[in-house]
Automatic annotation (TrEMBL):
InterPro entries: Bact_Sigma-Reg, GAF, GAF-like_dom_sf, HATPase_C_sf, HATPase_dom, PAS, PAS-like_dom_sf, PAS_fold. One of its GO terms (molecular function) is phosphatase activity. It holds the Pfam family GAF_3. CDD domains: HATPase_RsbW-like, PAS. It comes from the Bacteria. This is GAF domain-containing protein. One of its GO terms (biological process) is regulation of DNA-templated transcription. Residues 263-278 have a biased composition (Polar residues). Residues 263-286 are annotated as: Disordered. Residues 160-190 form the PAS domain. Coiled coil: none annotated.
């Protein structure tokens, strides 16, 4: 059942992808679905990219919440552009192609997904299920002795009263009737003000009418009962809207001494008597509150921003800034500013000890009367127009935790007196800032652990190299960086190759990729940790400068390959800090993860540490994907060598072979077939099944196929060929596997028939279909190979008349199961009976179709089907 719905349409421009990501993220977080937000954003990003970038149409995004999870649908308006074709269960996407990865990611991440077509649109949808987990705890209290618990009546009554938008009572429950002795018909339709005894507190203007209009209210008042006495109650009001959009207020009331039932826990300790007395006398109760104001911001960024604004106002400055110390206290990081380009300077770092003496140390208050006299004394203010500045340290228990500064455009604005005032304020807020910083750091570390766990799950969920590269980039942008580039190194002698590029603004990807292709890749250094790489930023600035000069006619007259706007935008996109992290797996550098920020932005140390942890996991996942790809390629190459390269054309006989190996990534299993010329006019054919699977079975398969050809061409007859093959299998000792084999020799005849001599060693019997529709076995069963030393085999002669068919299969056909049912020899005979008049290819196809339809589950055993038919003689 659908419980929530959100929809939006995005124009066919690159920036719509980022907007769509934000829309889905905000929607799901608003629905409380934080567990699946990241997966939903990754999938939406790829699908919207396919629509607005590759298809060039608007994208309609629809989010539906249901009991199990969230379903997201992305529709474009160009449905005939591409229909995904299923080929052996795989969707093939060229590694260099930007589009099409969305379906691969849906298959990897979504619980369910699909593609739906209408006359005007194509819908790609995916379903993400919410994990089953117990509800979170909003608040909890310690265990208390019984005598310390709040007092309540034997039966606790909670009155539920609903008030319509006019302030009149529309619902009155049984507990309200018991508490206040009014029957529902006595109160419904009457204003609540007729019954409420609202306290008139001096200095407050909030009455009961105003309280009922608030979205949420909690407090004490009284209700006059039927006997005229006022019952003190504690109430919780909540403003709601019904299905028709009408607003009303739901009131929950208990007796005032039972308020613990409804009362929300206080977020801060109640003030003591001294604080209450100070407030009653109008005196400030807390220096921190005096400086920051009340209420204090709950989050660190809000607290720091309020701090710099108050400091600027207190000293009548033009700008202010606050820096926090890193964990090792060797650097200070810009965290808040006002009057300065904060977005450009955020997270920039300066050393703690820039020089000797008071004015060069962040550990001491300092006053600079004129910065023009000492250029570079405060690097943060360079180029801002500020001339005088006062800075003071933030310290907790003697340890430097930050620095607070106020600056002015005029010279000589500040003295030691202002430094003392600012230091007094800094002392008041230092502890609160440190507490908020530690809280933020703890949240960040918890978030980092959750991020790394989810990243590990995603990376472990695929062994495809291209998908692993895409996931690496999708996880870092925009969570850790504005853009990301992944370089891969094939071996120690190879140059790094740019393999994947992603920017949070899809319009910048092509320009960024072009820029990075022109820059020498970073050196693959195995040293752990992030190192700064300035080449992209320098190249972007140089390209932007050359483009600007050409546009002004100051440089080469040749037209630039891209417009000035595109080049300048690319320079802005990569103009900030760029870092490179090595991807090291099994003591070898297999690539580099490059992260970048836009102009003048810097990375936080915590983000770099998180990126380093991610790079280690990503490197192992990427190397596993490489090893898996190499192993799969080698395995498939060896498997293909066990199959005959091609079937010979036999004059007068139609031949068709269908082969299906069970198992993912298998091209050859324990079954095999062969058809080959022996000498002029004679052909050998074989179909067999080796016991078991894996390398041992493959070894017997190769031995059997090549031995059959060699022995047959040496002139041995069928029984002699199989007897010698049996000896060769037994000579393998513990590695041997028993083998069922149907071997025969075929001679097309001048009269249009075909003569066959067959030996059936433990294999399902070949079936002969005559023109009249009758089916009969074409051989008798004999012992299988690889079990007994002395075999006495014999061959049987069969003549295929024109129009006859000889069908040979492995037991994967006859033993096809659906529960307790099995196709069996009788079922195969029934299928073959219906094939009269069909060509050899049609016969083989009908048998395969019957086997596949017999059971819904995929086949668990290999199948080989060999059909040979003698064509009917042409009249005249």
């Amino acid at each position: 059942m659908i419980t929530a719905r959100a929809a939006a349409t995005f124009e066919p421009v690159g920036r719509s992808v980022a907007t769509a990501r934000a829309f889905v993220r905000d929607t799901l977080q608003g629905w409380g679905c934080a567990d699946i937000v990241d997966d939903a954003v990754v999938l939406t990003s790829e699908l919207v990219t396919n629509a607005v970038v590759h298809a060039g149409t608007a994208a309609d995004v629809l989010c539906l919440r249901n009991d199990a999870g969230v379903r997201v649908s992305v529709a474009d308006r160009y449905p005939e552009r591409e229909i995904p074709l299923q080929n052996a269960g795989q969707i093939v996407v060229h590694p260099d192609r930007e589009g099409g990865r969305g379906l691969l990611l849906c298959g990897a991440l979504a619980a369910r997904w699909g593609v739906e077509y209408t006359a005007a649109q194509k819908h790609v949808w995916f379903q993400l299920d919410l994990p089953e987990r117990p509800a979170g705890t909003r608040s909890a209290g310690p265990a208390l002795p019984v005598d310390a618990l709040p007092v309540a009546e034997t039966r606790v009554r909670v009155a539920v009263i609903q008030i319509d938008r006019g302030g009149c009572i529309s619902f009155w429950n049984e507990d309200a009737q018991d508490l206040f002795a009014y029957d529902p018909e006595q109160v419904i339709g009457k204003p609540l003000t007729d019954f409420a005894a609202w306290p008139h507190t001096p200095g407050t203007g909030t009455g009961i009418v105003e309280a009922l209009q608030l979205s949420r209210w909690e407090g004490s008042y009284g209700i006059r009962g039927a006997d005229g006495r006022v019952v003190p109650v504690y109430a919780s009001h909540l403003r709601v809207r019904d299905a028709d959009g009408e607003a009303s207020t739901v009131c929950l009331l208990v007796r005032d001494h039972e308020r613990a039932i409804l009362q929300s826990p206080q977020r801060t300790p109640a003030p003591d008597s001294a604080t209450q007395a100070a407030q009653a006398e109008g005196r400030p109760s807390d220096p921190f509150e005096v400086f920051i104001g009340s209420p204090a911001p709950d989050d660190l960024d809000g607290l720091l921003q309020r701090t710099v604004e108050r400091a600027r106002d207190m000293l009548d400055g033009d700008a202010a800034y606050l820096l926090l110390a890193t964990d090792d206290e060797t650097e200070l990081e810009v965290r808040a500013s006002t009057g300065l380009p904060s977005a450009r300077q955020r997270f920039a770092r300066v050393p703690v000890e820039a020089g000797s003496g008071r004015y060069g140390s962040a550990r001491m208050p300092a006053v600079h009367e004129d910065l023009t006299a000492v250029p570079g004394a405060v690097p943060l203010l360079s180029g801002t127009g500020m001339r005088s500045v006062v800075t003071v340290p933030l310290k907790v228990e003697g340890r430097l935790t930050g620095s607070l500064g106020v600056a002015a455009e005029g010279a000589g604005r500040y003295t030691n007196e202002e430094a003392l005032r600012l230091q007094f304020a800094a002392d008041r807020i230092a502890l609160a800032v440190e507490r908020a910083r530690l809280t933020e750091l703890e949240k960040l570390r918890r978030g980092s652990l959750s991020f790394l766990v989810e990243a590990s799950d995603l990376l472990a969920g695929t062994l495809d190299r291209d998908q692993t590269l895409a996931l690496m980039a999708q996880m870092t942008v925009p969570t850790l960086a504005t853009w990301c580039a992944v370089y891969t190194v094939a071996d120690q002698t190879s140059e790094p190759e740019l393999s994947y590029v992603l920017h949070e603004d899809e319009d910048r990807i092509d320009g960024l990729k072009t820029l990075l292709m022109k820059v020498d890749p970073p050196e693959p250094v195995p040293t752990p940790g992030a190192r700064v790489w300035s080449a992209p930023s320098d190249a972007a600035h140089d390209a932007a400068l050359r483009t600007s000069m050409r546009s002004l006619g100051l440089g080469n007259s040749a037209r630039p390959s891209t417009g000035p706007g595109a080049t300048l935008a690319t320079a802005s996109a990569v103009g900030g800090e760029t870092v490179v992290l090595p991807l090291v797996a099994r003591n070898r550098v297999i690539g580099m993860l490059t992260l970048g920020k836009p102009t003048e932005e810097h990375f936080r140390q915590e983000i770099l540490e998180l990126a380093e942890d991610l790079s280690r996991r990503a490197a192992l996942a990427l190397d596993n994907a490489r090893l898996y790809s190499e192993r799969t390629a080698i395995s498939q190459s060896l498997q293909r060598s066990l199959l005959p390269p091609e079937l010979p054309d036999i004059t007068g006989v139609e031949v068709e072979v269908i082969y299906r190996a069970a198992g993912e990534g298998n091209e050859v299993g324990g079954d095999f077939y062969d058809l080959f010329p022996i000498r002029d006019g004679a052909y050998g054919f074989a179909i067999g099944d080796v016991c078991g699977t894996g390398p041992e079975a493959a070894a017997v398969t190769g031995l059997a196929r090549h031995a059959l050809r060699l022995l047959a061409r040496e002139g041995f007859g069928g029984p002699a060929v199989l007897e010698r093959l049996n000896t060769a299998i037994l000579d393998e000792g513990a590695r041997s596997r028993f083998l069922t084999l149907l071997y025969g020799e075929l001679w097309p005849q001048d009269d249009g028939s075909a003569l066959l001599k067959v030996v059936c060693a433990g294999h399902p019997l070949p079936l002969r279909l005559r023109q009249d529709g009758s089916v009969e076995p074409a051989a008798e069963p004999q012992p299988l190979l690889g079990v007994m030393d002395d075999l006495e085999l014999y061959e049987q002669t069969v003549t295929l008349d024109p129009g006859d068919v000889l069908l040979c299969v492995t037991d994967g056909v006859t033993e096809r199961r659906e529960g307790t049912r099995m196709l069996g020899d009788d079922g195969l005979t029934d299928v073959l009976t219906s094939c009269t008049g069909l060509t050899a290819g049609a016969v083989a196809a009908r048998v395969l179709r019957a086997v596949e339809r017999f059971a819904a589950e995929p086949a668990s055993d290999d199948m080989a089907i060999l059909a040979m038919r003698v064509p009917e003689l042409q009249a005249g």
